[in-house]
Batch of 2 targets.
Target 1
Amino acid sequence: MDAIQAQLSSSLAQLKAKLDESPALQKLEEKTHVPKEYIFIGGAFVLTLAFLSGVGTGTLCSVIGFIFPAIKSFAAMESHASNEVTQWLVYWVVYSFFSVIEIFAETLLYWIPFYYRFKLGFLIWAMLPQTRGAKYLYDNFLKDLLKKSESKIDAALKDAKSTAGKGDNGNKKDE
């Protein structure tokens, strides 16, 4: 029993040392008078329960799929690191393509159990610099598809632009 307590205390001390680097958790600890390691563990527990039960997984996918990549994209643009900017541009192309497919397949996706859990795993795989999943998908599938379809996409955009400029569903009004 003492060995378990010692291990737990050691693990909490390591977690606390890591969390000391977070000013937001420091402020939260000061306001709530709850140690930041307990706040972190409680938050992780609540998120895990929500994730396992399926509550809010769609929202979680949106937050993780947008917020983290947006922050990293901004940081990459500000640092002028071209390889990082390229990584995030590729991520946004893959994410956009995935989102368009998702719109058309929404009815079918409703019937896939644990869809949002799979989507979350996919998004994490696609965005992490360690896996470079978006780059893999872009290089092996999307690049050739987009290059072949570039003239059709440009024509569709030009048509949409001219239709949008006419107003009233594309019909010019008699004046």
Target 2
Amino acid sequence: MNAPLRVLVLWFPDWPLRAALGGPPPHPPTALVQANTVVACTASAREHGVRSGQRRRVAQGHLSSLQVLPHDAARDERAFLPVLQLIEKHAPGVAQLRPGLAVLRARGISRYHGGEAAAADALAAVLTEAGLPEVRIGVADGPFTAEIAARGPRPRTVVPAGLSKDFLAPYPVQVLRDEQIPDLLIRLGVRTLGEFTALPAIEVRDRFGERGARLHALAAGADSQPLVPRPPDPELVRSVEFETPLAGADQVAFAVRQTADGVLVALGEASLVCTEVRIDLTDDNGLVFSRTWLHPTCFDASDLVDRIRWQLEALAAQNAKDPVDEARAFGGISAVRIVPVAVDDAAHHQPGLFGSGTDERLHHAVSRVQTMLGHEGVVTAALSGGRWLADRQVLTPWGERPVAPRDPTRPWPGSLPDPLPAEVFRPPRPIGVDAADGSTISVDERGALSAAPARINGSVVQGWAGPWPIHEHRWTAGGGKKGHRLQIVDDRNRAWLVFCTGERWWAEGRYR
């Protein structure tokens, strides 16, 4: 597991109540209810026995004068957005864990203020001046430990680096907030995180699976949860509507150029750049076609226009393949909406003092080629899992996030060990593997060759190894891909990886 980050967590107690009632605590006895269940309550209500998770009737039985209000999650989000914006002005890179709980990397702000404790005091002073005196701050290795520290008895708590395990040890296992495993641990007599971490990690994994192993690492302070940037401001969204629907991709791309410039201007005014964008295309039938696009660095106006054109070309190609499917067909485009999905601080993407580096020049060159060839004209390779060579690589268009359909870290029995062939044939090429008498070699059900390989593709065989069987999905009715592999070296010192299916031989790859 990756080394945990030093993070700073800001917790605003009873935030849903503050969003509903307005103003800082103390608040009158109030409970927020959803589906007749208390989801949040004020400190004054808790003094009379009201608790989250109680049924509404039980809570009112503890306090007849309890004020009951419906819970509105969207209201919590809206009320917390100005707080995130305020924090962002003093500490860029803040992320929302949930309304009332924010996290940011501690390194930058602590170096600016001369230490983590000083940074926490500075942020607390800013928030107190803004009318948020109830804020509690925790600094630790990872968001989980920092949140526990923020919920502690002191307004500001700094857990020294590397001491998260000792800090968490006395806390009950319920702080892991899992629906099943804490209850099982309590029934087994394990009540604190310290007792949990004392159990061998291998035995925890065997007993509780991957989820238990994750919680065991979390209890030991090995928190590697990534920080996700906060949602972009809705004011960054731009859209354009056309009085007459436009049918051509180039027409739409030309018409939205000013809208794309507007998105970049709005981002620039907020000192932000966009790294992920969603484009919504509405046709004259009212159907909306949406797609999310990623960028290796950050979007400019030309990149946005290119994505819109590529999205239209993909829709036109899809419509041409299945023109009968009216549900998927689209007419002219009547509206385009550009929605920044992920943003980053513009300072992280500024060129160096003496110009851009090699990576930046490479990006611009590849992007120009992609603009000329189309979205799938430039692809990058990523490692995937699988038994066949063609399955172990995934080609992704430049700028997109590679998604491996099969986990490369899992064991793949029957897969080829390193070193792998330098050249992989997609699809496999037919090839001849013959015996000394010129007959084609076959492989029987037991995996035995009918004769020793003598010639491959007309060349003399110098050496060979195998065969090794591969039979995927043997339990299914039709079975899966199956065959027998051989490694063969010919008299031209070329090493081949070939396999036999039925009576035919195929070249899967070649060593160089």
